[in-house]
Structures are given as structure tokens and as C-alpha cells.
Amino acid sequence: MYELGRSKRASHAYSFDDVAIAPARRTRGEDEVDLTWKIDAVSFDVPIVAAPMDSVMSPSTAIEMGRLGGLGVLNLEGLWTRYEDPQPAYELLTQDCDQVTATKRLQEIYAEPVKPELIRDRLAELRQADVPVAGSLSPARTQEFAPILEKAGMDFFVIRGTTVSAEHVGGDNALNLKEFIYNFDTPVLVGGVATYRAALHLMRAGAAGVLVGFGGGTTHTTSAVLGIEVPMASAVADVAEARRDYLEESGGRYAHIIADGATGRSGAIAKAIACGADAVMVGSPLARATEAPGRGWHWGSDSYHPRLPRGQRSFFEQVGTLEEVVLGPSRVPDGTMNLAGALRKSMALTGYTDIKSFQRIDLILH
Amino acid sequence: MYELGRSKRASHAYSFDDVAIAPARRTRGEDEVDLTWKIDAVSFDVPIVAAPMDSVMSPSTAIEMGRLGGLGVLNLEGLWTRYEDPQPAYELLTQDCDQVTATKRLQEIYAEPVKPELIRDRLAELRQADVPVAGSLSPARTQEFAPILEKAGMDFFVIRGTTVSAEHVGGDNALNLKEFIYNFDTPVLVGGVATYRAALHLMRAGAAGVLVGFGGGTTHTTSAVLGIEVPMASAVADVAEARRDYLEESGGRYAHIIADGATGRSGAIAKAIACGADAVMVGSPLARATEAPGRGWHWGSDSYHPRLPRGQRSFFEQVGTLEEVVLGPSRVPDGTMNLAGALRKSMALTGYTDIKSFQRIDLILH
Amino acid sequence: MYELGRSKRASHAYSFDDVAIAPARRTRGEDEVDLTWKIDAVSFDVPIVAAPMDSVMSPSTAIEMGRLGGLGVLNLEGLWTRYEDPQPAYELLTQDCDQVTATKRLQEIYAEPVKPELIRDRLAELRQADVPVAGSLSPARTQEFAPILEKAGMDFFVIRGTTVSAEHVGGDNALNLKEFIYNFDTPVLVGGVATYRAALHLMRAGAAGVLVGFGGGTTHTTSAVLGIEVPMASAVADVAEARRDYLEESGGRYAHIIADGATGRSGAIAKAIACGADAVMVGSPLARATEAPGRGWHWGSDSYHPRLPRGQRSFFEQVGTLEEVVLGPSRVPDGTMNLAGALRKSMALTGYTDIKSFQRIDLILH
Amino acid sequence: MYELGRSKRASHAYSFDDVAIAPARRTRGEDEVDLTWKIDAVSFDVPIVAAPMDSVMSPSTAIEMGRLGGLGVLNLEGLWTRYEDPQPAYELLTQDCDQVTATKRLQEIYAEPVKPELIRDRLAELRQADVPVAGSLSPARTQEFAPILEKAGMDFFVIRGTTVSAEHVGGDNALNLKEFIYNFDTPVLVGGVATYRAALHLMRAGAAGVLVGFGGGTTHTTSAVLGIEVPMASAVADVAEARRDYLEESGGRYAHIIADGATGRSGAIAKAIACGADAVMVGSPLARATEAPGRGWHWGSDSYHPRLPRGQRSFFEQVGTLEEVVLGPSRVPDGTMNLAGALRKSMALTGYTDIKSFQRIDLILH
């Protein structure tokens, strides 16, 4: 604890940029590394979850993500459930213009109401492909659409907001998370969360996994607008302790940690796991895939809030197919392609062969 | 304390950029958040004070600020009290030109003497609108114009300089602050101040509130010119302890803390209060309002000193009405619109419902 | 140790940029400074090793490097052993183009297989010049080409990879380093290595010297891609302790430390030795020599990996002959010419006359 | 002390940018501030010494500097003592060209030998004006030109090099500083020096004052070329302790500290004195004066070393007369004009009225 001033003390928190993975005394062959991530009844080849952002996830890219061994999550409050045909909306949102105009367009296009029948139809489309099905809602609208979700038969339901707590008090559409999860058949992944205590409460509420961070590291401006910030390395390392404590107090329930924010480079993905994450949720690298519906433009749900937008639309040059982005081969030396291969290499060079043991590696601050 | 060198030790001080608000385990509905700020007999809907800078405050914008629920402060040593018609001066000061020319023009235009009768007339204009009335002077000229002020019937009188102390020794027009406040009917807000001890002395001199910081964070160059700097997070947290100690030693007098500097983004406003401030004084976001007399150009009283200018004129794109800047809705994701809404959201996401309790939130260093 | 988060602690590591050489109370004449570096049976006038990068080392520049008093190392898996005539390849790789195209070309050109007979011929060419002969291979291909190397009669054999350990487990072409070195006549320099423990194991495996760092500081992107980083000042200072401990446990075997990374300015070369290195391996300053085969373009073996490239091709303006770069005179004030003269000056100004004692100088953090 | 790595520890040192002057509880009128600096028999109105750099000091600007109340120092190894008429050299050195060409020209122009008779004549010219006379030489040439200096009747002789020690061993033209000063009538100011111990030795050798730092902060590249760096705040604070210890051990001899480096803004000048300096040596702000012989171009003696240049020629826009730069009024808000006025203001705002007491002010780290 450091003294901020006479009336206040503060602890230091670190971002992924503040830490680095240090090679140890042993190295391994890459072919010995196993990236498998098992959560609930599902096993994934790679511990990578695609963020429910309209710029990267359409029904078809969500399916492709599953085929590549990861998990695609469709935004159930996004363009695909507001518009029967979202292409005209994408057309408008992928034109070059200044940030003020971009924000205005986002606010207008997302003013269109979410249609329950489109939630149903989009999930059915995912269901037909033989991949794990996942969709996301904000906490405020979860209760409203829960009945549709229950009939849809998803593998994972993601509740995702800037900050989601198990103890939300008051407000419209307030969600009693514990009760909701108890009554809901599908495993729930929920976040953002940033601290040991908040994460422990989410775990106790029955979350199968928690999203650590606020997502959209590349695009969000939460710090400038709200003053709220989550240095990710410390947040993940804090929540990892909550996972351990909950495992003990629950007599064996392992709540997964999904790092969701500032994970846009493969190096940061490796660091997230080295800090204790089981998997990562990524956005911007997928925006670089030729199949991305945003055609290189990237935005999150923070960017179209009607009264307080907190995200910028950004552009990324497209570099290859979604498969190349996730599994390689890479053609760019900047950590945005072959995400799985880079994680594998990082583990091999430091002598680890599975995710769980890699979580224990020593890190350095620099 | 760190050792600077063998002969000197120094303590570490932190700016708003060095700290962040960390979400806790509870969240609240935004409609439960109360932003009310009560000082003396007046209650404000939002804890936001407009800085007495000619670029943002004219009589009409000062009145509008009051109508929006905050406090507008007119610079009583500025264009409006030097010129019967300040529009030609504004015309010159809002033309694009290099910094050297801009400084020369500022020095020339502000060489015009302040007219006592204009102080009287401008305050009368504010008085007629049904909003709290406030005006500001520098310490050096307070004594001179005090008689006019007393007759004007203000709600708050602001004494604002780079550094104002309760123990000024020597110099022309030296002000005995304690005596002045004792004899002056209107509550006095006074600063800048940056340390526990200096603030405690101002409180003991009878200040209803102290301005922490030097104002004009966006435009001033005090650090380059004077070597003086006030990392705001530490300054506010230090002075908050002075408020607590003075409350005890005075048997219940609560001196308000107004953070005045580096508060140009809504995120920083939230941090200022999280460090212990009761309210904030803002300048640059208001320069972005379409009603701002500076038309996007922004300058403070530091910038026109005749022998030692210490501020730069800056330009900000105008983004919406003053109401939109203060109360929203926002159309930009950078923390310069919907200042009150952003503060409300920040408090809701961290589970706080009023300013006093939000002052106690834990912060992190990053 | 700092607390990253509740579940993890980390130690702080420092780069060359974080440290500085502090003048002491004594100065020396430059003519009293002796830069001699003795390793195995060979004595070098300057403790500078040219990195085995195709952009700087051809057979002729490797020879010239030896003539200047340093050590040139030829990349035995590079253009000179893949192509009988590498000039067309150099032609393609030294054209201006964007990074994506550059990476694609590098991957294509280095897809050509390495020819054993070319390894033999190139080493023979070096042998004929009367300078120390050194070549390098990656660990994965060392075993395969070992028989050719043994016949070639080198003075030093360099095994160089991103991270090389004495305990590599599994993978194709896995190298048992200890056994290899035991059976191999030529002294082996091996790395990169970054930690005390890993370095100690390499020393115990019989390495005559270890390369500390990952090389190619100017061009590699290991941090962005793998999350792995080696703040060099700390790495060298850590490994220097391994050298001391190994010296004692082996009863007198002195394993040399060659700093290999972030040593592209003469100031950093001085810092590397001040941290404990016996010599440095440099790349980018040599790319600025008019004789450099890369004609100012610079790339390392990281940049052409077929599935996970981790380096960028960079351009440096050519400033003088290789002799001027290494021994001066300098015509640029940026630390990229007269490397030996700058080291000599740095030692003289701080009062040291030989490499071994300069390793003990006090440094400061800033 | 921090652990750099297992074999090495290092202490932390701070630059002027790392520290700030914190206002205290008292303020003063500016007219109460006394900037007088007394050294030996001479009293200066302002504690500002002009650096012996050809870009700012000609005989006429050195004289003007004295008339303004400071001390001008002429470079006795520069253009004015190499050329009877230095104007053609200035013509060449003040043309716009790239850095490589600039360095080449500097090396060529300064290859011209220094003429003893010109040293004599230039000093005589200064002598005729009724101001304190000072000139500088490098340590290597001090012995050679000493006889001329003795006859010239200077008030101060400055020996200035990158690092000057009282215990220089070996080299051509080695200077026995203690003996030299003992036999030399004029008070000697000598540096650069950066540490307590080195400074104490210079004081014991009889220096009337020591120059702390390496000068030419704006232009020199000592860090990139030599790895040597002197974070100025710590250096001055360290040497201030040497002054105190020497005062005691010598029974009352007060050796002056002149901060020489990174003092190019008035804010840094105030910080230098706040760290313990008695006066500052400045270069770049003077290059902005219309009278500066370099016409805005600025270079130091580091920049023309024949084999290892360590400085860049830089350009500064000219802003006013030398008088305006030193004594104001200022027309720019960046700390490069009205240096004395800014120092006066800084002291007044923090409640100090003389240099000696201002040396004891508390600083903060940020």
C-alpha cells in the first residue's frame, strides 16, 4: 500500500504491459504442448473465446470460431437481433468518417429495438452447425429475454457489462444473479469483474466462469469517461485467488477465469494465462480476419450507449482468414496472427505443456 | 520518503492519471445516485463549478450554468469588466495564429484597466437571473474592489491565484485573508492551494471552501516556467485530511474542497471526488460548448501576465450545447460530454449513491 | 518481490535504458584503457562479436570483422548456405516494401533448404583468411550438421535460438546439449538465456560462453508475439552471478557472458559490460556499414519463421565503413559509430582500464 | 538500493523532470525576493552563468550577460580563439542541413588550431568592458594555455569537460588539478562532476565552485554514446552534501555549486536551486536571443570531437533580446524567457526571499 495523500492509501496494480514472461531453465518441444480448455461438458482445442462484438461475430464467424476449436459468442443485443437483414447497418458502420459522426451513427443504428424472434432464429442457426453455441446479453436485459434463451438450448450464456456484480441494488430491470443462475439450465459466464471480492461473489452466485476485465481494450474509453480502470495482470492474479478460495469453500467447484480486455496481441494472451486465466476473450485480432463482418472496423457495445458512449470505432488492416488469425500460419510479426501457435511457442520455450501448469510460471515486472 | 540525494529527501505525489477507480463488489442503479452538493445555504444538483475563465464564462453562460444545477463563476478581472463591449476583444482572441502572437495579443488586450462600475453592472446582471451568483478576483486586487462586491450581494466570492496563502507577507496590495473574510459577508472560496498545512491555514482563516490545484490544467505551463507542480490526486487527498482535522478543531465547521485543475475529463472528475473533493471546478470541457464565448479557444488568467505569461491558448472542437456538456446526452466517447451522467455512472458501477460516501472508495495506482 | 495480485508475486527487472553509468571520483587517459577480450585460446582487441544475421554478416564482412579485432559469426542456416549465389535473394530483400510483403518474401526466400556442402565451402572460405572462424546454427539443426562442422575446423561454434536450455525435453531434432558439447572439439557459445538458473545449467553443460538475451533487439517482436521479454541489465547481472558460482563449483572454469540484445548503441555496449558482460554481440550498428550485405536493411532469423514470424525488417542509413563503425572515427553523434572508441572513452571517464574491473562499476537507476 | 540482478545493486537517481516544487503555507511579495549570488569577491544580481558555447557566447554577448547582472563565460578553445574573424565559420555552421553534414562541418571547422594570441586578445576585449571576466578551457589544454590566462587577469577561470576529476591518471597533457589551482591566482570553477565523492575531491583541490552535470542537456548525446548519465536533481542534492561536509572539514570554505545541464527552462532553474545549487549555467535559452552568434542554432563542444562526436546541433526559434530572455518581460509561456523573473516568482509563491533559504525547500517526486 502506498500513501496517495494523508487521507488515503492505495495499492499498486499492473497491466499486461507491465509484466513479462521470463524463460526458465527448461524448454519443451512445441508438439508436446496441449492447449485444451475444458469447461463444463465442453472441451475446446484452444482457450480462445471470440468477444460478442458485432464487428467480429456474425452467426457465420461464430460458427467458424467453433470449427477452429474455440468458442464464438454472438451478441444477442446487437445488429443480428435488431435487424432481420443487418447488412445495410454494417454498410453504414464500415464507412470512413470522423469519430463524432461514427458515434452518432452507432447511436442511431442501435436505437432499433431488439427482436425476441431474431434472438430465437439466430441461436437456431448456430444450433444447426455442429459447434458449441453461445450468446450474450447485458445484465439489464437478461431477465427480459431469459424465456427465449431457455428454449434455444445454448451451451453457454454470457452476461457481459462494464461491471457486473452479484449484489446489484435497485435500478430498472435489476437482475438477481444468484436466483437467475440457479433457475437457468445453461452454464453462465459473467463479467466484467476486476477484484477478488467481486469475483468471489459471482462464483458463489453460481457462475461457471467469470470475465475479468471490461472487454474492448482496444476501443473502450472507460478510463477517460468513468475514471474506472482495471490493470489486467493484477486483476487476473487477484481473481485467480478467488477461484482457489471458492474451490475450497465449495468443496471442489472450479469457476473458470476468462481474461476479457487488453488481450489483443498473442503476447498478452500468453501473459493472461500466465497470470492465472483459463482462457481469454479476444476482439481486435479477429477484426483483422477477412471474414469479420466489420471489414476491419471494430467497435464494442460501449460505443453506442445512447447517453454516454464510452468507446471509439477503430480500424484494423485485414491480414488473413479467421483460421490464419487463430491457428496460423502468420504473415505479420506483431502478435495478431496465429494466436494459438504463439501461445504454444511461448509455453514450449518456457518449458510448460498445459494451461494449468503455465498459470504458475514466474513473471517479471519491468 | 525517498532519498533524492544525500542532502535531500522527497515524498511521492500522484496525479489523477496515476490513479484509477476500482469497481467493488456491489453495483447500484443509476437512478439511485444523488449528486447533490450542499455548501453554505445553497444546494446544487451537480457538484460542478465553472472556472472563472473568459473563454468559458460570460454573464449568460454563468447564468446557464446555474440553471443546469451547477455554479457559474464570472472572472471579475476579465474581459467583461475591462470592456463595456468585450466582443471586439473576443474577436481578436479567437482568431487562429501562432502562440507568440496569441500571447502578445492576450497581454495587450488585458492591459486595459478593470472598471469598478463594470464589476457592479455584471454582477447585477447575474443577480437578476434566479441562479446563485459568484464572481472571482485575484488576491492582489481583492481589497481594492471589496466595497463594490459587498454591495453586489453575491452568493459566493472566489479568490483565485496560482497559489494563495493565509500568510502572505509583503508585496503591494497584500491581503490579510483572515481579516478580510471575517469582515466580508459573502462566503469565500479561495485557492489554489496544494498542501495539508496551507489548506488548514485557509480553513482557519474562515474559507467556506478551498480550491485545490492551480486551475487551467489544460492550458497552464506553471511547471515549465516555475517548476511548481501539484499532482492532483495527492493534493486532494492531503487537503481532505485538513478538512477532517479542521472539522474537529473547529467543533463542526466543514470547509469544502473544490478540485481545480486537471479535471477536464469526466473520468478525472470522478477521481477527484474519489480522492476526497466535494466538488470540481472545470474549464476545458465547457470550452467545447457552442455557447462558450471563446468559441472553442481556451485560455486562463495565467496566459496574459504582462511580464511572465504561464499559459497557452488552446483550441477545442465544439461538440454540443452547454446542457449537453454538463448533463448529456453525450455524442463523444472521450469524457468531455455528459459530465454529470458520467459521474453518476461511475458511482453506480462502484456501488455508491452519494458524494460523501464516494469520497471513501478505494483507489488503485497503476 | 512485488505483489502482482493476490495469487502471484513478481520481481522487478531492468533494461539498459533503465540504468546509467555514473562517473566516479577518478578519470583516466584513454590510452591507458585496454579493451582486450581473451576467451579460450583466442585474444580479441575489442570485445565485440558480430551477430550471425544475414543482413550484416557475409563471408567477407565476417573476415573484415576479424581483421578489425573482433569476431565475425556467419549464419550457417542463412542465405549463404541456402544459395550458391545469394545475391538475387539479397536483391529482393533489400527493396523497399511494406512489412507484410517483406515478411512474405522472407518466408519464401528462406524456404530454400540449407545445403551441407555450402556450409563446408563457406567455412573453408573463412578459414583461408587469417582470422578466428565462427558460425552459428539453431539448436534444432545442430545435430544434423555437426559432422560437417567438425571437419571445418572452426574456432567457435555458436548455437543461437530464442531460448536455448540445457534441459530441452521432447520435440523433433531435440539436442542433448551436454553430450553434444562433450563430444564436440570446438568451444561452444550458446544462448539466448536470460536467468541465473538457466545460464548455470548451460555452463555446467560445458558452454565456453553464454549469449544473454534474445538478440535482434532492434528488429524482434518477441514481446508482442510471445509475451517473453528479457530486460537486459537485470539478465546480464543475474547471469554474472551464475558465472561466479560456476567458477567456484567447477574449480576455476570461467564461462564468458556475451550480451546479445539491445546493444545497438555504444552507450548500451558500455552498460552491458558494466552489468557484468565480457563481450557484446551487435547487429544493427553493423547494418549501417557500407560493406553490410543488407545495404542498410536489417533482419534476423526471427523474421522469417514459416508459421510465426517474430521480427520486422528495418532500415538504417549507412554511415561509413565497417572499420569506422567499429573503430571510428565517428561522424554521427548517436552511438552507432566508433563503438570501441566510445567504450574506451566511457571507461576512461569513469577511471577504469580493463574490462574485468569495469564490470564492477556502480550503476544508477533513473 | 535496488537489486539490478543477483550480482549487482543500484541506487535510484532523479532528474529535474522527476521532481517538482511544492507550494508551502506562506507566500511572499515578489519585491521581497533577493536573487543576489556572491562568489569570491564578486556579487551577481542573478545567479545565472552563460555556458561557454560558441552558439551563445561571443565577446559581445559575454559582456552583455555581465551587464544584465549574470556571468558570461567565453569558450577559449572555440571559434573566437581559432579564427581571427570567426564570421565565415558562423556562416557555415548556421546553415540548415542534415545532422551528418552538420557534424562533418563542425569537425572540419574546429580542426583549426587554437591561437594563444587570440585567447589574449579576446580576454583583453572582455577586460575593457566593466563586467566580470570569465573564460573556459578543457582540462587537457589548461596547462598549455595557463601562462596566457595568468596575464589576462580574469575574474573566474572555468575548466569544463564531460567529466573532470581531481585524480586524473595518465593520458597526454594530464592536469594535476590541485597543484594547478594552488599556483593559479584566479578562482577556478571546474566540472562536470556528478557525485558526492568526486565533488568533494574537487573542493579539496581548491575549486571555488564545481559545475554539476555535463552541460548541454539540450544537445548532448552522452547517454547514447557513452552510457553515462547524470540525473540532475540527485546529482545536485548529492553534491550539496559535499559542500556542507567540505565547509566543516575546511573550517569555513564554501565551494559553490553551479548546476550545468538540463537547466534550459526557468522551471528547471528553480528546481536546480531548490535541490541545492547556488547558481545555474544555461545554454539553450540564450540561443533564443536575437544577439546569439549562433542565430538560433545551438551546439556544444561535445558536438565537434574529431573521433567521437557526442552532441547534436539543434535549432531554436529566436524570441527576444538577451535582456528579455534573462530579465524579461516574457512573451512566451514555455519557460525560456524572463528566467530571473520566473525564479523570483517561484520563490515568492513558495515563501522564500533568498537563494540560500530556497535551497532548503521541500520537493516532491511525481
Automatic annotation (TrEMBL), chains A, B, C, D:
The keyword Hydrolase does not apply. The keyword Oxidoreductase applies. Keywords: NAD, Oxidoreductase. InterPro entries: IMP_DH, IMP_DH-rel2, IMP_DH_GMPRt. Residues 13-299 form the IMP dehydrogenase/GMP reductase domain. It comes from the Bacteria. It holds the Pfam family IMPDH. PANTHER family: INOSINE-5'-MONOPHOSPHATE DEHYDROGENASE, INOSINE-5-MONOPHOSPHATE DEHYDROGENASE RELATED. This is GuaB3 family IMP dehydrogenase-related protein.
